[in-house]
Design a protein that fits this description.
The chain is α+β, with helices and mostly antiparallel strands. The chain is built from 21 helices and nine strands. A seven-stranded mixed sheet has the order 3-4-5-2-1-8-9. The protein has a two-stranded antiparallel sheet with strand order 6-7. Helix 7 runs antiparallel to helix 10 and helix 15 packs across helix 17.
Length: 420
Amino acid sequence: MSVSIAGRADWLADKHLQRLLAALAEGGEEARVAGGAVRNTLMGQPVADVDIATTCLPQEVIRRAEAEGFKPVPTGIEHGTITVVAGGKPYEITTLRADVETDGRRAKVSFGRDWKLDAERRDFTINALYVDADGSVVDLVGGIADIEARRLRFIGDAEARIREDYLRILRFFRFFAWYGEGRPDAEGLKACARLKDGLAQLSAERVWSELKKLLSAPDPSRALLWMRQAGVLTAALPESEKWGIDAIHGLTKAEKDLGWAADPMLRLEAIVPPDAARMKTLAERLRFSTAESDRLRHWALSTAVEPKTTEGELAKRLYRGDRQGFVDRLRLSLAGARVRAVEDNNALLEAGGFSRLLAFALKWEKPVFPLKGADLTALGATPGPKLGEILKNLETEWIEAGFAPDRGALLERAAKALET
């Protein structure tokens, strides 16, 4: 079956890309766009990155790119990959390869000229498609049929593909979340379940990167369900085992209905317990960034908010705590109440309360306490523990009064406190 994407791939018409493909195809060599750009175009989804496969050896890629006035960067030359910046856009160009040796994490490769062998070393059929410069799709592994069926399938033997790189277990569920429909491929699912212990060989950074991409899918709930049934979710994220993933579907629906952006961190919080000690361990194990660790910790430390809470009371808690932590709590509570509201009128009222409080928290700005230690020393206070205690007590009074007392009133209170 002949398939062309020429009329629906604006990115392929880019003049710099066309020049690059032409340069790499001179003298009997070949070059094609490979992988995600072809897949996403066929599925009607946006294309972010354009990767190229070529028969040219890496040094020849560099030579030809420079001859065209483009900038080559040897980002992975030992694996046959050169990044070429053309027209301000980076293109990752990789020489056709075959695996010589794998250990479940990385592979030793040999360069070749066989497109079928190159396709067969890839993970899934939908990721092993190529397209020529004129838009003609080259399918050597049945990827087009799988795209039409929204079916995610390993190339060849699923277990063999996984043993080449155990990260493919997580990629199986990630790509299913983004592109699959119905049930996952049975052979792929069984292979993932059998080989899940291999995840322990992977670096924490690779595991968290895949989990985050999975949690960024429009609705990862089905993928998470199958991950749990296969034992993969517990292997990768043991904190989720006794907490559950039931909240995910309601959260994604709330995101869609209320216009919230898909938020992988919020989705993670939906499936793990709000236990600060366990979240600290999770963040350390998966090597979270400082911002990710802080957000998870603040969420775990933020106490639950009741739907009847007043804005004034919430403002006090926001001042003493972390706003993002409370916003996350409120979003999860609102999503849960919306699910229950289908059959429970009380939950409908709760949803209204959470929605009100969330709107308040999102627009709330932390007020600045009007006094400093220097203000008390100007009144004659001696620096030391007593000054700090008075300042702390005054701030507490100011908070409990709804942040209403102004600087003058607080100075009067400070003067009286210093007299005692």
